[in-house]
Amino acid sequence: MLSASLHDPARASRLAGLIATPLLLLAAMAYTGFNPLLLADGDTAGTLWRFVADFFPPSTDGAFLHDLLRETATTLAIASSGLALAVLLGLPLALLTSRALERDTLCGEAPARGWQWLQRLLRGVLIVLRGVPDLVWALLLVRAAGLGSLPAVLALGLAYGGMLGKVYAEILESQPPQAAAALAASGASRLAIFGYALLPQAATELISYSVYRWECAIRASAVMGFVGAGGLGLLLDTSLRMLNGGEVGSLLLLFAALVALTEGVSRVSRAAIHSRAGGAGLAAGTLLLLTLSLLWLWPQWREAPFDVAGLWRFAQEFLRPTLHADFLVQVGNGVLETLLVSALGSALAFIGGALLALPASNRGPRWLRAPVQLLLNLLRGTPDLLWGALAVLALGLGPAAGVLALAVHTSGVLGRLFAQTLENTPPDAEAALRHSGAGRLACLCYGLLPQALPQWVAYTLYRWENNIRIAAILGLVGAGGLGQQLYLALSLFQLSNAATLILAMLLLSWGVESFSRWLRQRLG
Amino acid sequence: MVAACCPPNPKDNPLMNIAKLSVAGLLLAAATLSHAEALLKVSAIPDEAPTELQRKFAPLGQYLEKELGMKVQFVPVSDYAAVVTALNADQIDMAWLGGFTFVQASQRGKVVPLVQREEDSRFTSKYIVNADSGISKLQQLKGKSFAFGSASSTSGHLMPRYFLQKQHIKPETFFKSVGYSGAHDATVAWVASGKVDAGVLNASVWDKLVEAGKVDQSKVKLLGTTPPYFDYNWTVRGSLDKKLQQKIQQAFLKLNATNPEHKAILDLQRASKFIPTKAANYKGIETAAKEAGLLQ
Amino acid sequence: MSLRLDAASLSLNGHRILQPLTLQLAQGEQVALIGPSGAGKSSLLLLAGSGHRPDGGNVQLLGQDPWQLRAPALRRLRSRIGSVYQHPPLPALQRVVTAIGAGQLGQLSTLAALRRLLWPQDVAAIRDALQRVQLGDKLWQRCDRLSGGQRQRVGIARVLYQQPELLLADEPVSALDPRLADDTVALLCADARARGATLLVSLHSVELALAHFPRLIGLRDGQIAFDLPRAEVTPSLLTALYAGEQPATADEPALGSGIRIAPC
């Protein structure tokens, strides 16, 4: 009879994993200077506590509240019109690049060479558009063409346009191809295939994703002001720099309300698509929102006209990246720092998310559930840049603050997703172990976690791809990495240095995306 | 479909054309709108909190409205470099610039310096330190964290960096970490809170904060003062009507401390009086910026 | 008495699944449970494994009422009861060695359990259990790489490794070919006999029940239709038991779908 050796064939790799994981984490901690013990330090805690205690009572100063209302409206208007621009940009690009509309795959026609080159070019454009973080787009546009909400709208339009272009194309590709193939065989054009075959199938998913993106756009536009591009971020930036706790408190409350509101609207809208009346209502609501947004923003745009010539001059200066060895070493350090900050932050968030997900999904004391869920909402509803600013206050300037900010914010995001995974995991494996007398923790580790883990890891890797971009911009609030160098270069109008830094960001985010995809495929 | 319906011009890069067309199309209306002539838009580098800037400017704005016979509007801006961009892009007509931002603006477009405060010809910066750190000399700051103001600030960054380098201190290696608080009063708040060990700021803002009792002397201590240099001025965009430029200059020069109304304006600006200035005054700043590696 | 039900009944979601049942199994006894699909066989086994609390009557397991016990005592009692499931709930990424090792979690301290998760322990005994179900070569395999029949046998190996005093099996051989099914039921009986453990097995196949078990319980509509020694189970009793049964269709639960979009 066949029999396996008593020695674990995976022994070497398990041992290596058991040793390497903590070593890598420790190395990353050493490099970024992140020492969790510092958080327990009395001075640090005292500084932080004094600042946070200032949050209460939130500022109710009349002038401040007036600004707050105005900037909230601007933020909503920026997000809505920015997303509209992104759809205008992303949908055509998706239609031009989606493989679901290819005549050669649908009915075997040979594609024209020129067409293939155009498509390759457009896919490249999409990668660049979404590879540069929206905040960096805003920073560039503010530097190039001046102040105000228009750069913010354009930045959202560009970054989200790239993202929507890719996701729209993927949604179309995931549809059953029969209807499209039949139309293609009868000689229909690309647009006709989309309109008659794919749109009816994919419409709800396309709309649902766009609404979801709107929710993200609100959060993004709330921090655009950090680079001078209008909206609530302007106030938050000032209040944080001046360490004005009361104002930060008011802003935080407002953020929480805004996030809750948009999530509610988003949920209702996504449910509404499924009925005819709901769809019509959603369309009318979108039009109304867009009209109001443009009406609100228009006077601002008229007062600060956009400098197209400046944009042009800027682009020309920008197209000559610095490639001095000295500078490249400095950029290399920034890249490594950003990479480690994002990786360590995500890894810590994995642990934090797991610990929070258990009580949030009823795997802990029942009374703990509601407070933990509230905590999760607070963690993920507070913008990452704000966490960055708070972390800088706690740990001082530098990458350690970046690690803390990412870990805290991402714990909130992952905690919620992890809890969802747990709620969807079949309970029988755990029950079987419990019925054979296993303890709670053992049931968890042997029955529940092995089932949830693959999904958890996938979520964390996805999130890491996102965090590499956040790590790149946390430098704006003094949390190290490429962002700080970029901000400096752009403030000093050293545009060729800035170009090199943005190239480095693009390479880094592309590299992490590829690595994460490879890892996910291996694990899945 | 936007991209597909525009036939590419074979001479140009088609991508650029597409980008140009879509950007231009979107912004056409906004870009072609001209300024209303009877409005003077003024801004200032945000070297202090925006609310403070507005408070400081209000009486000066009213004075200018009266003297020039036109409406004067203050445009608050959150970031130094954005003021430079806005001035070069003709989005604003006049700005309160630092020496360094003036050099940046004159490198990137045509701007005309009109007046400066008498004090600006011998300006200084102050090094400050957290009182708990027990530090009493600049050299003791080795391995500590240090905050400049804005990266684009003359008195909060450029000149202190330049003078530090003259003493063979390279901030990035000498200090444990270097941060940019963004504004002079923010630097004081950072040092007081212990967010950084030490920092440097505009002497005039420091004096004002001390006089107003806004510095907790038990938390922040003065460490030293830099040698003097040229700083701030009021600058207009080069394309502004020459007669208007002269009228503005005259209005500033007319301010006289013996007139109580004028005195209030001058006090808020922390000036004894305004004097004419010229671009050549800032050659020294330009040299320092190049030596400090902040200007290419 | 190893297992004793006194007018124990069970309702789930307001549905009466089991009518009040009375039934006793002496220590070392081996009993087969037969009956049509939906008769309540699995529920009865869950009741006997302390998986469900009866809503009427009384359940005594190994001389104790599990529902009167405090948590530590309940754990100790449960570690002496082993269950085999028709679809053993084995986590996809878990290795067979860990899945079987989990059989003794009831006897281990939490610390020992965690240690075993990081580094396999007691490998020889685990391989021994696996060899008895003829899967000795699958020791280091991941559970999602196993066929349905192999998963069933890994589930059996887990109980063999657990060595419980009361062994409950729910359709333990439904995915095995007839010869292997016969061998496996024989293995369960032999193991129980060797250790003096009590065995209650529900079986779809009446032939297997008659071939291996001295006592048969027929269950229909949540009630005991008969509880007789093998010799007294007549063809007419069996015909009545299965009268009007529809051929059952297998339904595998679908597991969670993948994710498409990264959250913002």
Automatic annotation (TrEMBL), chain A:
UniProt cross-references to CDD domains, sorted A to Z: TM_PBP2 (cd06261)
Residues in ABC transmembrane type-1 domain copies: 72-266, 335-514
Origin superkingdom: Bacteria
Keywords from the UniProt entry: Cell membrane, Membrane, Transmembrane, Transmembrane helix, Transport
Compartment(s) of residence: Cell membrane
SUPFAM superfamilies cross-referenced by the UniProt entry: MetI-like
Keyword Calcium applies: no
One of the Pfam families matching this protein, by short name: BPD_transp_1
Keyword Transmembrane helix: yes
Membrane topology: Multi-pass membrane protein
Transmembrane segments: 76-96, 135-160, 180-199, 211-236, 248-265, 277-298, 339-360, 385-408, 486-512
Similarity remark: Belongs to the binding-protein-dependent transport system permease family.
Name recorded for this polypeptide: ABC transporter permease subunit
TrEMBL record, chain C:
Domain of life the protein comes from: Bacteria
Keywords: ATP-binding, Cell membrane, Membrane, Nucleotide-binding, Translocase, Transport
Gene3D superfamilies: P-loop containing nucleotide triphosphate hydrolases
A molecular function GO annotation: ATP binding
Domain ABC transporter: 3-246
Identification of the protein by name: ATP-binding cassette domain-containing protein
UniProt source species: Vogesella margarita
